[in-house]
Amino acid sequence: VITDPGGLAIGVDVGGTKTLGLVVGPSAQVLCELRRTTFQGQLRDGGARVVADLVALLEALHEEAGLSLGAHPIGVGLPGMVDRSGRLVYAPNLPSASSSSMLELLQEALGAPLSLENDANCAAVAEHVLGAGRGHGDLLMITLGTGVGGGVIHGGLLFRGGRGFAGELGHMVVEADGPACPCGARGCWERYVSGTGIERMARQATEEGRLEPGAAGASLRAAELASLARLGDDAARGIFESAGWWLARGLANLVGLFDPTCIVLGGGLSDAVEFMLPTIEAQLPPMLEGAALHPVVELHPAAFGERAGALGASLVARRAP
Ligand SMILES: [Zn+2]
Q1: How far is the CA of 175 from the centre of ligand 1 (A)?
Q2: How far is the CA of 273 from the centre of ligand 1 (A)?
Q3: Helix intervals (H) in 66-118
Q4: From the CA of 33, how far away is ligand 1's center (Å)?
Q5: Which of 28, 77, 281, 304 could pair with 122 in a Cys bridge, judged by C-beta atoms 3.0 to 4.6 Å apart?
Q6: Strand pairing category for 157-158 and 148-154
Q7: Count of CB atoms within 10 A of residue 232's CB?
Q8: Residues 69, 58: contact at Cβ < 8 Å?
Q9: If you measure from the C-alpha of residue 192 to the centroid of ligand 1, how many angstroms do you get, rounded to a whole number?
Q10: What number of other Cβ atoms are within 10 A of residue 277's Cβ?
Q11: How far is the CA of 233 from the centre of ligand 1 (A)?
């Protein structure tokens, strides 16, 4: 139970696989933390199950911290296209809530106001204001998880685009005939660099005999692959090097578009970023326009790791009118 509730805010990050809720103090310190599995089913319930799970998590979080609901700002980050009215217009990695009026449903079920934003936009705000991108007015945040999210800070502000959808970087096509994506396109960036993309590459490498089955073999989760890489497993490291090359390929396009001075890499796969970073650092500069003449773009792992989204959601809520 938190004894001094002054200046607190609540932040929740709904990932494609897990949902993280935080009670955040006035200097962004995490005071309380809860984690739940995200409902991934294909139910056609208009988001009812996702809303019920979120309300349960928020109630449990408030109870554990000894706070009353509605007394502190609440921000929620969602994986997908969140428009300015709080509608989750499209969410390939949260299918049952896709095209639901999430803000309305959540506020009604919770009986308290809250702020909604895209999850990676939240992470971008956190890393820009307090984290690895501090001092950079133009930065890109890339969140690697079940999918790939993006957040663009432009001129010191979150760049939201015409409807709020800017920064859906994971669905940038990097291979015209690449693997099918849940979004309906082929060869999306996230098919190569997300957790599911990395798992797909591991499976493929095993099938083609490039990876020993049973070593870093088939049907390993990306987190298990990261543990193997940490133990020095060459096959697992090779998969992350491939993912690192694909990351560099997509980032080179994005540097041309946005001219960031800094790129921050985080998300649910934050623990695996260290195995991809050396490849990106080596591969990205020669891919940039003007290559050797191009100014250095700083690359940093997220300071807040997989908590950046939830922390940013609390900052977004705190700034909401
Ligand atoms: Zn896609």
Answers
A1: 11
A2: 21
A3: 102-110
A4: 31
A5: 77
A6: antiparallel
A7: 8
A8: yes
A9: 11
A10: 17
A11: 30
Residue 141 to residue 315: CA distance in whole angstroms: 16
- Tokens found for residue 17: 């696989």
Burial (0-12, 13-18, 19+ Cβ within 10 Å), 225: buried
Q: 95 CA to middle of ligand 1, Å? A: 13
pTM of structure: 0.92
Query: Is the Cα torsion angle 304, 316, 149, 264 positive or negative in sign?
Result: negative
What one-letter code names the amino acid at 195? G
What separation in Å is there between the alpha carbon of 18 and the centre of ligand 1?
20
